[in-house]
Amino acid sequence: MSMPPKAIIGKDGWIFLTNDTNRTWDQYEGRLLLSDGDVAEWRQELAQRGAFMRKNNIHYRFIVAPNKECIAPDKVPSEMRKAPFRLVHQVEDAAKGNVHGMFLERFILGQAARLSFYDKGDTHWNAYGAWHVVNHIMKGLEIPGGIRPISEDEVHFRQAETHVGDLSIKFDQAVSTGSPRVSLRNTLARCTFDNRITNHGHVSIWEGGNPDGPSILLFGDSFAGALVRYLAHRARRLVRLHTNSIDREIVFRERPEIVLSVTIERFLRSVPTRIHEYSYRTDLRKKLQMLDEEARQRTIVDLGKRQSAANAAYAADALCSMEPA
């Protein structure tokens, strides 16, 4: 029996996710909504996040990246119809009065170049789209002195003619499409730590972008990845964890001025692990325990290299996670 396709081709060569566990098309057409209980759980989690951040004088933004088909409804297969009320709107209602939510669909739809924000063969926004999104986030941060958006003079985009995205690779013969690549001119930001874990459990740290800039803690799924270099360019320190939850221990460890959490719309179907329960080290341990002996030894050597005092705790997290339970 053949497996159902994981990607479908829409108009003008645009490719979209399908048959995924989050039932993206059911969300798109409004058939999949949250129950009253799920909405209540979202409201409670966001209320707890908001209260925690306010208590600790942290500027927090709950950021939701729109599904690609919601930004390009004119490119989806003709039988698909975008519903006026969807699951994302239920979460947006739950966020009101609890956290400062940034639901980016309306912002992106309002941009004349919106179709340039995403690659035809990938679910994610690309480097060009991420630049616009980061500037929108920076403008929305109400901190003393603000954060200056990244100007056109500071970025250089070039088009990579060959790029196989996470959707185009799902075909028997992968479809190669172009994708913009970015260089930041005169950036001082450098990655000073990376535990080299893929997805959940991943931590990377960037320092030196702007010595007078803020400290930023970034939680998020794969959509957060394209934002890192831009945010690091304006921050004195940026710590990125791959998770849709908030790890309070890391917030206390870093004491940042700004906390951002970024999630893709389709993941809103599930409420993430609660702020008072989550530890990224649970994900880290699972990943590290799966390594074969050769990979374990490489990781131990890599993490054992001299770390700054500010970063040593993250190396210790990984090394301790490799110990037998």
Automatic annotation (TrEMBL):
<keyword id="KW-0574">Periplasm</keyword>
<keyword id="KW-0732">Signal</keyword>
<dbReference type="GO" id="GO:0042597">
    <property type="term" value="C:periplasmic space"/>
</dbReference>
<keyword id="KW-0808">Transferase</keyword>
<dbReference type="Pfam" id="PF16822">
    <property type="entry name" value="ALGX"/>
</dbReference>
<comment type="pathway">
    <text>Glycan biosynthesis; alginate biosynthesis.</text>
</comment>
<dbReference type="GO" id="GO:0042121">
    <property type="term" value="P:alginic acid biosynthetic process"/>
</dbReference>
<dbReference type="GO" id="GO:0016740">
    <property type="term" value="F:transferase activity"/>
</dbReference>
<keyword id="KW-0016">Alginate biosynthesis</keyword>
<protein>
    <recommendedName>
        <fullName>AlgX/AlgJ SGNH hydrolase-like domain-containing protein</fullName>
    </recommendedName>
</protein>
<dbReference type="InterPro" id="IPR031811">
    <property type="entry name" value="ALGX/ALGJ_SGNH-like"/>
</dbReference>
<feature type="domain" description="AlgX/AlgJ SGNH hydrolase-like">
    <location>
        <begin position="8"/>
        <end position="233"/>
    </location>
</feature>
